[in-house]
Amino acid sequence: MPSLRMLRARLTRLGSMRLLTAIAPIIAAALFMTLAATSAGTAQSSVRPPESAISATGSPTGGAVPGDALGTTSDAEIWRAVRQGVSGNVSIPDKKAAVLVQSEGESWRLLRNGPLFDYLGLAMIGTLILLALFFAIRGRIRVEHGLSGVKIKRFSTIERTGHWLMALSFIILAISGLNVSFGRSVIIPLIGKEAFGPISEFLKLSHNYVAFAFMLGLAIAFVTWIAHNLPSRHDLVWLAHAGGLFSEGVHPPAKKFNAGQKIIFWLVMLGGLSLAVSGWALLFPFEHSFFGDTFTGLASIGLDIPALLGLPQPPYSPILEQQFNTVWHVVMAVFMICVIFGHIYIGSIGMEGAFGAVGSGKVDLNWAREHHSLWVDELREKDAMPPAAANPEPAE
Ligand code: HEM
């Protein structure tokens, strides 16, 4: 009689045997299929037609149509045309699919993943270094006559809403956009692919949606500030003194916005519009021909941009339009990011008393006198000064 332990051991062996019998064919089949797939690949690359079939041209068919049965064009000619981007015929709605190889795509990829991103990265790092140097040399620009303690209203709630809507959405768009451009090379080595995937998905979606908040902020800022940003003769004086940025005790007169702020305003409006238009074309791809249309329009006034840049002449295929859009979008984005680095610097650590304008909406009277003396005069003429600030004591 077998003991209980022997019985259990036999049953366990039997169980293992059954498991082994069940998985063995699956593993064997998988191995067989892997081997078959591998050898098929090897066979494809190693099979060589018999020597007798290879003509003097080196081609198995001597450049002729195999069997003379499929038309009058040789394989080599067909594949050369495909490589050169010749469009074939497709019966599906996506007509872009008729082009199998688009050579400009390779040039675009090489430009984008090579010099373009190198220079854009350097531009941002260079701007930060320049600002740090400027801060080290010039230090914080102080209110020369000290803070008076008297506050005057500078920006209304609607003005600050436009500013912050634009500013916060710009920061989110900059971070999420730069993640598309530089994430693979900069972020993956730091946090790994597992974490990068979901973060990027979230950032990519936020880029799509936050874009609309940015456009709204841009529109509000345009409407509320355009009247104060038209050029005036005082701007020339301000520019001639570089706004006193490089020399202490120099305060050229300015209205509500000085020439430097006007330059930032127009850069943000035009740069923001350009980002919105190119971004729109990326959001709804293959539906626009902004580049082709713009180049054609400029050519009609004698400006042949494609010829100047060594580009093909319009009209462009939808895919080439997209490639132009991505390059333009990222170049404009980095240009604007560098401009905004400077703006954030001067509005925060770079200049004492400036932040209150967009923070609380109020600024110190002495700050206003030093940087916007003509605006202070205007407020006084309009009786728009608080009683404590009514005393017209000059700042200098
Ligand atoms: C205003 C409306 C905007 C729209 C509709 C928009 C839309 C888009 C879209 C759809 C993409 C393509 C993302 C992808 O490859 O999947 C993109 C990329 C990008 N966006 Fe924007 N964007 C806007 C504004 C901005 C702003 C303000 C900035 C910068 C501050 C910015 C920076 C970028 C960057 C750096 C990329 C990556 C480009 C690349 O590497 O090819 N975008 N944008």
The CATH superfamily of the domain at 149-389 bears the name Transmembrane di-heme cytochromes, Chain C
Instruction: Report the radius of gyration as a whole number of Å.
Output: 34 Å
Question: How many individual helices?
Answer: 11
Instruction: Quickly give the CATH architecture of the domain at 149-389.
Output: Up-down Bundle
The ligands found in this model are: protoporphyrin IX containing FE
Structural class: mainly alpha
CATH class of the domain at 149-389: Mainly Alpha
List the helices and strands and how they pair.
Elements: H1 4-46, H2 75-83, H3 103-138, E1 151-153, H4 157-225, H5 233-240, H6 259-283, H7 290-299, H8 305-309, H9 318-347, E2 362-364, H10 365-371, H11 373-381
Antiparallel strand pairs: 1-2
Helix pairs in contact: 3-9, 4-6, 4-9, 6-9, 10-11
The structure holds protoporphyrin IX containing FE (HEM).
Protoporphyrin IX containing FE binds next to helix 4, helix 6 and helix 9.
Note down, in words, how this protein is organized.
- This protein is elongated.
- With 396 residues, it is an all-alpha fold.
- The chain is 63% helix and 2% strand.
- It has a domain at 149-389: Fumarate Reductase Cytochrome B subunit (Up-down Bundle), CATH 1.20.950.
- It has 11 helices and 2 strands.
- It has a two-stranded antiparallel ribbon.
- It binds protoporphyrin IX containing FE.
- The site of protoporphyrin IX containing FE (HEM) has 24 residues, from helix 4, helix 6 and helix 9.
